[in-house]
Amino acid sequence: MSFAAHHHWPDALDLATTCLLLGGILALTLSGHVLFVLDVRAWLRTFRRALIVVTDHLPNFPRWVRLQTPRCLAAMGLKLPCNEEQLMRTYRQKVKQLHPDCGGDRKRFMRLQANFEEALQFIRNQVRDGKLRC
């Protein structure tokens, strides 16, 4: 009798090897899909940031965009048309509430700073381009 006559397939070693190989292929495929989704999400965040930068530098906005209050001004509690003096007055009031030395939250204060800088730049650009009057 030969060895092949007594050998039954699949034995435990063959079954374990086959399961490990198929499991590895499945795990590799799933990890590829997960990494792809994470990479696409990161790309979309980067793309959104790029769109924000581009729209901040476009010279001519459509009429419907000009009618909406920019997010940075809305966060400060202002609406268009407003001027730099109104922005500064609102900013000083909010700083007194949100500054960490006065018991405010650091994250909210940093968000206020970012909104203020963006709103100030927006108002100055609008005044420079003649779209807002001082």
Set down the secondary structure blueprint.
Layout: H1 3-6, H2 12-57, H3 63-67, H4 71-76, H5 84-98, H6 106-128
Helix pairs in contact: 5-6
The tally of beta strands, per DSSP, is: 0
Q: Judging by the overall fold, what is the CATH architecture of the largest domain?
A: Orthogonal Bundle
Helix fraction, binned, reads: over 70%
Structural class: mainly alpha
Q: How is the CATH topology of the largest domain named? A: Helix Hairpins
Question: Sheet with the most strands?
Answer: none
Helices, by number, come to 6
Radius of gyration: 30 Å
Distance between the termini: 104 Å
Order of helices and strands: HHHHHH
Q: How many structural domains in the coordinates?
A: 2
Report strand %.
Answer: under 5%
- Can you tell me the CATH class of the largest domain? Mainly Alpha
Oligomer: single chain
**Low-confidence residue ranges:** none
Q: Which descriptor suits the 3D outline?
A: elongated
